[in-house]
Design goal:
The complex is a heterodimer of chains A (243) and B (345). Chain A folds into two domains: 2-82, Gyrase A, domain 2 (2-Layer Sandwich); 93-240, Cyclophilin-like (Cyclophilin). Chain A is built from five helices and 14 strands. Chain A has helices spanning 28-43, 70-82, 108-114, 119-127, 221-232, and strands spanning 9-12, 17-21, 49-54, 58-63, 93-100, 131-136, 143-146, 161-164, 168-172, 175-178, 183-185, 188-192, 213-219, 239-240. In chain A, the strands form three sheets. Chain A has a seven-stranded mixed barrel. In chain A, strands 1-2-4-3 form a four-stranded antiparallel beta sheet. Chain A is globular, with a radius of gyration of 19 Å. Chain A starts with 8 loop residues before the first strand and ends with a strand. With 345 residues, chain B is of the alpha+beta class. In chain B, the strands form five sheets. Chain B has a seven-stranded mixed beta sheet with strand order 14-15-18-17-20-13-21. Chain B has a six-stranded antiparallel beta sheet with strand order 7-6-9-4-1-11, with no helix packed on it. A five-stranded antiparallel beta sheet of chain B has the order 2-3-10-5-8, covered by helices on one side. In chain B, a hairpin with a 2-residue loop joins strand 6 and strand 7 (87-88). Classes of the chains: A alpha+beta (243), B alpha+beta (345). Chain A binds chain B through residues 11-17, 19, 21, 24-26, 50-58, 60, 62, 65-66, 69-70, 135-142, 144, 181, 183, 198, 200, 205-206, 210, and chain B through 21-29, 127, 136-139, 179-183, 226-235, 252-254, 259, 262-265, 287, 290-291, 293-295, 298. Chain A: Pfam families: CT_C_D (PF02682). Chain A: Its EC number is 3.5.2.9. Chain A: One of its GO terms (molecular function) is 5-oxoprolinase (ATP-hydrolyzing) activity.
């Protein structure tokens, strides 16, 4: 399958980073190639490469131009990217509890109205999704998910909110998200999870990795409060089921 | 141990170092000093590693008082008047505050950020190898927020080492150099030429996250929404209103606007020290030139200790003084050799 895909483009991102771009659009096949290149780089490190940032469609590679130049690094990245994709390894799967609606998901009713259906139906469609962590960015632990049910695709809000709470579970455009810290957002807020995808003094500090699978399940607001206390104490309350 | 007490300080002042690397893939902002050369120079003066944690002082004044013993410090970066009990303190020199003495710093006279390094460096709890403050994520140590009056640092007692000054190379002037891309193909030739050919000013609403640029509106070929991808220090993104934003140290790790160009590593600190309202231009350079400059910049940081001189052999930097006079700004001969000379009083 990899052989049928065009080679990635190397886009200069200044003198100390290069963007390896597989696609201009959100595309699961491209995202798989991004994550495969990221893995290949981790398995056979290139001297001078300091850090990589996988995104939906590209891998940003930070490097030290004192150790390796743009052309030499570009050649090696293209060679790695042209390798056949490794057989799909078992992805980790996280089952994430979500308290939908009410104070935890203030847009649930509006989303239901906009899509001409009921809040319960929106929850069912959101819970029914099989998601993949395509990238993590913006703020610590903010996990961008692909796999949102097509019937839930809708434009972002006209005016973004300056504050949305920690743990917000939201949808925006064709994406779904798990937000860890309070942050501004223009997405539609369906609920909140007590799961911390980022918690400083916990091991691991970051729960999700690009490539992980995610499903959601609904909990009531009382259960939310109980799990929230456990999570605050450092317990990992997301259920891990290896797919 | 001595203490250094922040007796007063303005906004946009915080503990910064070389930044927090290795977790951008999880959305963790890098942060770190806006002007790495100035951080390196200040630290080198007091015998610290170049990117050790120091106080990054924003454009307003500040005062620091030594308690429970003497504290040795050094200043570099945006020039400003400084004194201890009325006795002037030069930029780019070390100085020892005796127990109870106060170092008083005025407003930045050109540039924005001055670094106060402390002998033995600021101590705290590192997260991902850094004490740098990232207020949004609640990170940074000893205070995970901008500094306030009353904050204090527990620091090494002054060593009594002879005071030093550092001879930095003559400040680079001229346009801020960029490498085009990663999304320069989202703009047509006319708009790329407009970006490179226009005069820009930094908006007063800029901060450590990004510098908003005031100038002509830059139009996109295919609209302003791209699928989010990674950012670097100095990425110049163009949002829907056409007003570019240069992403700085507190940038988000990813962004969804096309990035027309990237400031070269050697010039990010110069851009950081460009005062709001000062006109400047960009210039595109080749990747080869940018990487050559990046290597020279690394070499400069590595060899900062070779530039140390005894503080009692101050020579007037006639060239810098003359530049300063051209700019119409009276400057203190003691700090004329530093980064910036204010274009406006």
């Amino acid at each position: 399958m990899a052989a049928t895909l065009p080679p990635p483009r190397l886009l200069p991102s200044g003198d100390s980073a290069v963007t390896v771009e597989f696609s201009r659009t959100i595309d699961d096949a491209a995202n798989e190639r991004v994550l495969a290149l990221d893995k290949a780089l981790a398995a056979s490190p290139i001297e001078g490469v300091s850090e990589t940032i996988p995104t939906y469609r590209s891998l940003l590679v930070h490097y030290d131009p004192g150790t390796i130049g743009f052309d030499a690094l570009g050649d090696r990245l293209l060679a790695l990217a042209s390798q056949k994709l490794p057989p799909a390894t078992k992805a980790r799967r996280w089952r994430i509890p979500v308290a939908y609606g009410g104070e935890h998901g203030i847009d649930l009713e509006d989303v239901a109205k906009a899509l001409n259906t009921t809040p319960d139906d929106i929850i069912a469609r959101h819970v029914g999704g099989d998601y993949r962590v395509a990238m993590i960015g913006f703020t610590p632990g903010w996990s961008y998910l692909s796999g949102l049910d097509k019937s839930l695709h809708m434009s972002r809000r006209q005016s973004p909110r300056l504050f949305t709470p920690a743990g917000t579970i939201s949808i925006g455009g064709i994406q779904a998200g798990i937000q860890c810290l309070a942050a501004p957002s223009g997405w539609h807020l369906l609920g909140r999870t007590p799961v911390r995808t980022y918690q400083l003094h916990r091991n691991p500090t970051f729960l999700t990795e690009p490539g992980d699978r995610v499903t959601f399940f609904a909990i009531d607001h009382k259960t939310f409060d109980e799990l929230d206390r456990a999570a605050e104490a450092g317990e990992i309350i997301a259920e891990r089921v290896d797919a | 141990m001595s203490r250094l007490v922040v007796a007063s300080i303005g906004p946009a002042s915080s503990v910064q170092d070389g930044g927090r690397h290795g977790a951008q893939r999880y959305g963790l902002t890098v942060s770190g000093a806006m002007d790495r050369l100035a951080l390196g120079a200040a630290n080198t003066l007091v015998g610290n590693a170049p990117f050790a944690a120091a106080v990054e002082i924003g454009p307003f004044g500040a005062t620091f008082t030594a308690r429970d013993g003497a504290v040795r410090v050094a200043l570099s970066g945006a020039p400003r008047n400084a004194d201890i009990a009325g006795k002037p303190v030069a930029m780019d020199t070390s100085v020892t505050l005796k127990d109870g003495e106060t170092l008083t710093l005025g407003f930045a006279r050109g540039g924005a950020f001055t670094y106060l390094a402390i002998e033995g460096a600021i101590k705290g709890e590192e997260v991902f190898g850094s004490l740098a403050v990232n207020a949004r994520a609640g990170l940074g140590s000893p205070y995970p927020r901008p500094l306030q009056a009353g904050d204090e640092f527990t620091v090494d007692a002054a060593s009594g080492a002879p005071e030093l000054r550092i001879e930095l190379p003559k400040p680079v002037s001229g346009p801020i150099r960029v490498v085009l891309g990663p999304q320069d193909d989202e703009f047509d030739d006319a708009n790329k030429a407009l970006f490179l050919g226009s005069e820009w000013k930094i908006s007063a609403t800029s901060d450590r996250m990004g510098y908003r640029l005031e100038g002509p509106a830059i139009k996109h070929l295919h609209g302003h929404n791209i699928v989010s991808d990674g950012t670097v220090n100095g990425s110049i993104q163009v949002p829907g209103n056409g007003a570019p934003i240069a992403l700085m140290m507190d940038r988000g790790t990813s962004g969804g606007y096309p990035k027309i160009a990237t400031v070269i590593t050697a010039d990010v600190g110069r851009l950081a020290q460009t005062s709001a309202g000062t006109a400047f231009r960009f210039k595109a350079v080749s990747m080869a030139e940018a990487q050559d400059e990046a290597r020279k910049f690394q070499q400069l940081i590595r060899t900062l200790p070779d530039r140390l001189r005894s503080a009692d052999t101050i020579e007037l930097n006639i060239e810098a003084l003359s530049d300063a006079n051209v700019a119409g700004q009276a400057v203190n001969a003691m700090d004329a050799g530093t980064w910036q000379v204010a274009a406006e009083p």
